[in-house]
Fold this sequence. Notes:
By secondary structure, the chain is of the alpha/beta class. The chain folds into two domains: about 5-85 and about 130-375, TIM Barrel (Alpha-Beta Barrel), CATH 3.20.20; about 90-125, no CATH class. Helix content is about 40%, strand content about 15%. The protein is built from 16 helices and 13 strands. The protein has helices spanning about 20-30, 50, 55, 65-70, 130-140, 150-160, 175-180, 185-195, 195-215, 240-260, 280-285, 300-305, 320-325, 325-335, 340-345, 360-375; strands spanning about 75-80, 90-95, 100, 110, 120-125, 165-170, 225-230, 230-235, 235, 265-270, 290, 315-320, 345-350. The strands form three sheets. It has a seven-stranded parallel β-sheet with strand order 1-6-7-10-11-12-13, with helices on both faces. A four-stranded antiparallel β-sheet has the order 2-3-4-5, with no helix packed on it. Strand 3 and strand 4 (about 110) form a beta hairpin. The longest helix has 22 residues, at about 195-215. It starts with 20 loop residues before the first helix and ends with a helix.
Amino acid sequence: MNPSLAxxxxxxxxxxxxxxxxxxxxxxxxxxxxxxxxxxxxxxWDENYTEWKMFRENGIRTEEEANCFLAFDRxxxxxxxxxxxxxxxxxxxxxxxxxYCTDGNGVLCExxxxxxxxxxxxxxxxxxxxxxxxxxxxxxxxxxxxARIPDIEALKREFPDDRDYPLGVDAGSMIGKVRDMLTVxxxxxxxxxxPDMVEDMVETCCVLVEDFLDxxxxxxxxxYASSWEDICFKNGPLVTLDFFKNIVVPRYQRIRRKxxxxxxxxxxxxxxxxxxxxxxxxxxxxxxxxFPYEVMGCTHPRxxxxxxxxxxxxxxxxxxxxxxxxxxxxxxxxxxxIPCVERGGxxxxxxxxxxxxxxxxxxxxxxxxxQEIFGLKE
Length: 378
């Protein structure tokens, strides 16, 4: 654990329980009996750390500090160097009242000059042609890069075998990071103009994840795997279903085989937007959990859990629109999640990073109602 957390003084008490956090997490996510719901959240916009008095006056500046401050159950993940390295240097320029930057993927972006939390406008990708990809791959996606080798002994000291909290392993991104590098528009063209290039990018992502898993899986009993894709928006996928089925899913299946050999059953994917068209393919590839599951672009989590009983898990799914809708809306929505928690395979929390339009007193009310409904019953 980060030594700086020792100075954080929680304002809430940890939920009472009869199980360790690790035991509770595994049983809840595998449709077994558990003492009370695992208590976690998925962080906050940057503005919350300056606009919420409780964070500002207590020096809370990061999600890790906030998790300790609000006494959530501990959950950790071992991350790998499974993407671009070294990253492109970040450069910022200002011109005609606009602020431009080159990000770590080499993509030219327009950003807010005041640094507010918003998605940049992506203007020009670093990779446009197979020749660009060949150069970038040789320079920044080397499998033999020493920086890709994890320090196993340091990780074992940080995450001992007798831990009482769940520990995950990074399973990377097969297409979401590729979309980041090419941009949405660039990927749309490249799938048709340069399909072999795009497939090689996906294959490169897969190989780097496989290398990392081969290096860490023998030394830990991980409780879950995590991936990031963000390959959907409110109207569905940003790639064709044929592309996803034929190019992405086989790579998931290769990773799933390694996870199965290491007895890692739970594998979640962070993918915003309407994931429903991709969900059968996620499941076919071995991904069996959605995280943090945005409701507004999709549907109430109960709908999908009933459609895929005993197969799909969901983490998240408390609609942040209702979280900002006042206390009556908060309680009503929390009560709508009771069947999901009772069924198992579901952990409730805000369906993305909590935005600053949620009053902090209402957020504390939300946490209190969650404990009242899903905490330990004496």
